[in-house]
TrEMBL record:
<dbReference type="InterPro" id="IPR013785">
    <property type="entry name" value="Aldolase_TIM"/>
</dbReference>
<dbReference type="InterPro" id="IPR040084">
    <property type="entry name" value="GTPase_Obg"/>
</dbReference>
<keyword id="KW-0411">Iron-sulfur</keyword>
<dbReference type="GO" id="GO:0046872">
    <property type="term" value="F:metal ion binding"/>
</dbReference>
<feature type="domain" description="Radical SAM core">
    <location>
        <begin position="43"/>
        <end position="201"/>
    </location>
</feature>
<dbReference type="InterPro" id="IPR007197">
    <property type="entry name" value="rSAM"/>
</dbReference>
<keyword id="KW-0949">S-adenosyl-L-methionine</keyword>
<dbReference type="Pfam" id="PF04055">
    <property type="entry name" value="Radical_SAM"/>
</dbReference>
<keyword id="KW-0408">Iron</keyword>
<dbReference type="GO" id="GO:0051539">
    <property type="term" value="F:4 iron, 4 sulfur cluster binding"/>
</dbReference>
<keyword id="KW-0004">4Fe-4S</keyword>
<dbReference type="GO" id="GO:0003824">
    <property type="term" value="F:catalytic activity"/>
</dbReference>
<protein>
    <submittedName>
        <fullName>Wyosine [tRNA(Phe)-imidazoG37] synthetase, radical SAM superfamily</fullName>
    </submittedName>
</protein>
<dbReference type="InterPro" id="IPR058240">
    <property type="entry name" value="rSAM_sf"/>
</dbReference>
<keyword id="KW-0479">Metal-binding</keyword>
C-alpha cells in the first residue's frame, strides 16, 4: 500500500483527507494510519501555529462538516479490512489531520469505536492521539485520552510570550493550568515539543529560537513536574506557512534529549 499525503495548492501546506488517510510514515510512531476528525477541505484548530504543516487557519476555512462518528467507524473498518487482506497492518492508528482532534463533539465515542476495531483487526497496533492540549480540561476528553495507548500532548514552552508568538492560541490559554491538567493524567501521557530557530515577521521580526537555556531550563522543570512516560522532541520537517523558520540542529536536539534522559524520563529526538 502506498504512502501519501495530499498537498493543498496554497503554499504547499498539507490538507489531509477525512476521515482516514495514509498510511504515512511517522518519524516518531512508525507506519501510521491517520484518522482525521476535521473537515476534509480545511483546517479547524484552537492553535494557529506559525510552523503548522496544514498552514494558517485563515487560509483554509472549511466548508464541509466534521465527519460523523458512524462515518469514521465505517471508513476505518473498510481500510483495516483491506490492509489485513494485503498483509500490511499499521503500527499505529493516529488521530491527527487538519487541526485539533479533541474538538470533535463525538471524540470520546470515536475513541471507543477505534479501540474496538483495533482489537478486532490489528491488536498489536497502538492508538495514538496528537493534541495541542487545549481541551484536556473536559472530563470526556480526559477520560478518552486515558484509554488510548499514546496520549501525545503538546508543550512547546512555558513562556507565555513565546506561546502567543508561535503557537498563537485562539482564545484564553493559561500554560500553568495546562501543566496542572497534564499532571492529572498521572504519567499517562507523552509530551511533544517543537524546537526551532530563526525569526518570524508575523507582527514584527522576532526570534523564535526556543533552544536556549532561558526556554529549555523552565520547560525541563515543568516536564519533571508532569512526570510523563516519555518526551518526544522534534524540529521542522516540512514547509511552514511562516517564512524565516529554521530547524534546530542535531546537536541542540541531542543536548536537550540528554538532559531529559538524565532527569529519568525517556526521550527521543527527531531531526
Amino acid at each position: 500500500m502506498a504512502f501519501f499525503v495530499l498537498l493543498h495548492p496554497v503554499m504547499s501546506t498539507i490538507i489531509y483527507p477525512s476521515p482516514i488517510f495514509g498510511p504515512v510514515h511517522s518519524r516518531r510512531l512508525g507506519i501510521s494510519l491517520g484518522i482525521n476528525l476535521l473537515p476534509a477541505d480545511g483546517k479547524v484548530c484552537s492553535f494557529d501555529c506559525i510552523y503548522c504543516e496544514c498552514g494558517f487557519n485563515k487560509d483554509h476555512r472549511p466548508t464541509l462538516p466534521f465527519p460523523k462518528r458512524e462515518e469514521v467507524a465505517k471508513h476505518l473498518e473498510e481500510t483495516l479490512r483491506k490492509m489485513a487482506a494485503d498483509g500490511q497492518l499499521p503500527d499505529v492508528l493516529t488521530f491527527a489531520g487538519n487541526g485539533e482532534p479533541t474538538c470533535h463533539p463525538q471524540f470520546a465515542e470515536i475513541i471507543d469505536d477505534t479501540i474496538r476495531l483495533r482489537d478486532q483487526y490489528c491488536p498489536e497496533a497502538k492508538v495514538s492521539v496528537l493534541s495541542n492540549s487545549t481541551f484536556i480540561h473536559r472530563p470526556q476528553v480526559h477520560e478518552a485520552l486515558m484509554r488510548v495507548d499514546n496520549n501525545i500532548l503538546k508543550l512547546d514552552t512555558i513562556d507565555p510570550t513565546y506561546i502567543q508568538k508561535v503557537d498563537r492560541p485562539n482564545g484564553a490559554y493559561d500554560v500553568h493550568q495546562i501543566i496542572e491538567q497534564m499532571k492529572a493524567f498521572d504519567g499517562h501521557l507523552i509530551i511533544q515539543t517543537m524546537f526551532m530557530r530563526g525569526e518570524t515577521e508575523i507582527g514584527s521580526q522576532e526570534s523564535v529560537d526556543n533552544t536556549g537555556e532561558e526556554y529549555v531550563g523552565p520547560w525541563l522543570e515543568a516536564v519533571k513536574a508532569i512526570r510523563p512516560q516519555q518526551v518526544m522532541i522534534y524540529t521542522i520537517d516540512r514547509e511552514t506557512p511562516a517564512q524565516g523558520l529554521l530547524k534546530a540542529t542535531h546537536e541542540q536536539l541531542d543536548a536537550i534529549r540528554d538532559r531529559v534522559i538524565a532527569a529519568g524520563i525517556p526521550c527521543t529526538a527527531s531531526y
